[in-house]
Amino acid sequence: MSQKAKGWLLVVAALAGVWLVQNGANTRLTPPGPASAEAFAAGPELLPGSPVAEPLRPSAPVRIRIPSIRVDAPMMRLGLGADGSLDVPPSGNTDIVGWYKDGTPPGAKGTAIVAGHVDNGQGPSVFYNLGALKKGSTVEVLRQDRRTAVFSVDAIEVYDSKDFPDKRVYGTSEHASLRLITCGGGFSESTGYEGNVVAYAHLTSVR
Predict the structure, then answer these.
(1) Radius of gyration (Cα) for the chain, nearest Å?
(2) Where are the domains of the chain?
(3) Alpha helices in the chain (DSSP H)
(4) Do the beta carbons of residue 164 and residue 17 sit within 8 Å?
(5) What does the pLDDT look like over 108-163, one tens digit per residue?
(6) What's 3-206's CATH class?
(7) Whole-structure pTM value
């Protein structure tokens, strides 16, 4: 892993959960949370019996589709702000997903981080139903190289911000792995969402 990538992981581990919590709407919409059956049985593992595809060469993602929760959205690059925190997709655009442009692109070897808002002041956003995913759900990422990376969801978990497992979420992977992150967990009228929903997936095929 490059020094740049290592530095990014440190930044994201410290700040990604924070911006997602702070950028949730301050009104309670009660998005679905993952059922306990969708969590890992015993640590981060690939879903048993699920195929594992060879990683692709890096190529930027342009669109994400998650048929089971009706997500079909464009993707944008996210950089770091002046304060060193991860930029966010525009809160006023409810149909856009971001990925860190200097991190691992979805489909390449390693852990790709993808984030989207759960809601804003006007209502649900693109990842509102992320907590409703099931193990084995399909995530399709269309890339600039005109290939579609197809992922299978291995688990969906929810974490309080104070217990966010940085290494588990952002750690390196020998496969082409994907993390989908949004706000979730408890809710405070004064500060908004108090945690995050994270879906773990790995590359199973390429079209």
Answers:
(1) 15
(2) 3-206
(3) 3-22, 166-170
(4) yes
(5) 999 999 999 998 878 899 999 999 999 999 999 999 999 999 999 999 999 988 88
(6) mainly beta
(7) 0.85
